[in-house]
Amino acid sequence: MSTNITFTMIKPDAVADGHIGAILGKISGAGFKIKALKLTQLTVADAQKFYEVHAERPFYGELVDFMSSGPIVAAVLEGENAVESFRSLIGATNPAEAAEGTIRKMFAKSIGENAVHGSDSDENAQIEAAFHFAGKEIF
Ligand code: DAT
Ligand code: MG
């Protein structure tokens, strides 16, 4: 076990539905420490770049449109085995398959509009945190 970071976004669906407070409460309640936090909106170009690993997938256009459609909350979180433990907290990509009590089970609408992002590796957590935050914004 080691303390490290992950990167998350509360996606446009969950922000529009008024779930910022509840989701941040779940994150804090699970023991994550907030190292950086902001309300922001991705441009189409930002969303294309952030999700470029999915560029060849059939849902890429829909994903980019959705992720740039309204404000998001971006955050850097610190915790024990942060990447893996945060992915357990958010649940499966498809909320229909997410475990009871997970953030996606509670707040996601569909596989595309699924309330939150969580990094999938320590390396990507660092890349994604740096994509959204300047060094001086991470505490
Ligand atoms: P995750 O966000 O759980 O890491 P992912 O990296 O496979 O999932 O996909 C990134 C996002 O793309 C996901 O949060 C929602 C969207 N997405 C994935 N699979 C999809 C599908 N089959 N149809 C529509 N959107 C999808
Ligand atoms: Mg992913």
From TrEMBL:
The lineage of its organism: Bacteria, Pseudomonadati, Bacteroidota, Flavobacteriia, Flavobacteriales. It comes from the Bacteria. It comes from Frigoriflavimonas asaccharolytica. It catalyses: a ribonucleoside 5'-diphosphate + ATP = a ribonucleoside 5'-triphosphate + ADP; a 2'-deoxyribonucleoside 5'-diphosphate + ATP = a 2'-deoxyribonucleoside 5'-triphosphate + ADP. Its EC number is 2.7.4.6. This is Nucleoside diphosphate kinase. The keyword DNA-binding does not apply. The active site is at H117. ATP binds at K11, F59, R87, T93, R104, N114.
